[in-house]
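#struct-queue
[09:14] JT: dropping the first one here, sequence first, then the structure tokens:
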Amino acid sequence: MRAAAASAFLLVATGSAFADGDSLVDMLGPREIAVGEALRGGATGASSIGLNPAGVALNRELVFEGGYGYRQSDGASLVHTSACDSTSAIPGCFYYDYAGSNPTLDGMSLHRTTHVLGAALAYPLSPKFALGSTMKYFRFDSDVMSEPKSSGFTWDVGATARATEMLTLGVAGYNLFGSDSVDFPRAAGGGIVARPIPSLTASFDARWRLTDTDHTARYGGGLEYFVSTQNGQTGFPIRAGVLHDNGLNATYVSGGLGLATLRYSIDIAGRFAASRPSDKLVIASMRFYGPRLQSPSPDAPQ
């Protein structure tokens, strides 16, 4: 019994170093994972839920998305479903996320589950600037000794500025208001997205955990190259990225592929640790589109 208690305590004390799991990473999809989590300046649709709610206003479309991911380090299953409508006056998303992990230590099989239900809304003030907020209800359960269960509401906020067609900036704060939970830490992040040519996107992001005394950070960057067919009706995004977490002293390499048509798209991404004990993540999603409208250009005369 003492050995079991000691093992559980050790897992709690070191869990973040091995599992990487909390709301800041569990809610990310294949597109953002593939480019090193660097899409805060250009997140749209479901990507804006976990990165920057203001990004819902960057395009004008109705899209339904579902996804699944598996993380090797703690045997985590990551499930996501969402519906986003950015064709209305106030663009927004409704979503549900589930993360269930099964960490093992000294032969003990433990279990954690997180359910998140929420809505993200964006407020486009002009074609160049938008604000956004996310309200979410969470429930965190765990059978790990000394790891408290928790539930409640929390809020994210974000802003996006489209300087030009080629340059977009974004900033966001996570879990800034509402219930406190170790699994929903307060954090802030920002990023820049550049499109030197229409088919190439480059991005760089940084995120800091505000609840840590030393404000540990993740820095990431990536590229996406979009290959279109001759008729322009189908495309194949190719993505690659690098991510470094100075709190875990870990560097990750990621990549992904996609298939995009006018009616649906499929994305898959993988990430592995290049400078720490073996850790792999594979995640995929599928989107179905409704009406899609042309977005206002930030370079158009006001």
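[09:21] JT: and here's the second one, same format:
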Amino acid sequence: MLSRRRLLAAAALPAARALAVPFAQFPLGVTTDEIDDDVLTAIKMLKEFGVKWAEIRNIYGKYNTAQPKAKIHELRSLLDEHAIRVNVLGTGFFKVPLPDDTPAGRTALDAQWTLLDGAIDRAQILGTNKIRIFGFTYPAGERPAATAYPRITELLREASRRTKAKSKGIRLCIENVGQSYIWSGEQAGRLLKEIKEDNIGLTWDPNNAAETGEQSFPDGYRHLDPARIYHVHLRDFRKATNGKVEWCAVGEGTMDNLGQLRALRKDGANSSYTLETHWKSPQGKAHATRTSLTALIKVIEAV
């Protein structure tokens, strides 16, 4: 039986604390090439921190989709040997200018469909059901044309159909990213309201959204359906003297990672997570990831 004092103390805890889980049970991964392009080197750091997940993007100097399948099978064996699982496969699918409906545009689009097919194959080899994709790009200095969104919606729906035809269970996770038609939380939320397919959702990156001037959490996040957030990228940012967003070590910027994580858990988002620090430390990217990972784990333990 709990004493009255202990019951009163438990009742006084903030409600968010009831959502806390031990870090060992939190589905956090790290983008391996932000430690090192050599996967074994990256794995050693993951194991040092007790991280059991990895986001695979570049390996051995190339995008995973540019590596032969034999190399991907070798990677799977290496990950299995060290009990590391892949939470999402990072690809460059649809991170290209929106193709026109012309012969040249259709040729460019065919190359993207080939890329998607290869990504599905690699995701299946690596045992993940999530593929990070994008929503097309527009030139720097321009604004996204409102007339482009119906075509983007159509092409993303086509990607959904092709994915379902080739594989059961694979989910496409659109990342909101700079110079993309899906950059802010508001843009991501609006797009996903138009796409009802249940195998398309979001890789939510609140730091990228902040580059638009949006207060990504809580304002941008309010536009999103938590059930459509399949994956989340975590890091930190601050405003430089020129007013632009720059990446920094977790805990040294203005991103409310604690508030964002608490909101995701409270809202029942069944998301996986990746530390993608992007911060370029003078001491190298492994040091940058180590510094941010140390701080991020403390945040997670406070959720």
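[09:30] RK: nice, looked through the second one.
[09:31] RK: The chain has one domain: 29-302.
[09:31] JT: good to know. Confidence is low (pLDDT under 50) at residues 1-19.
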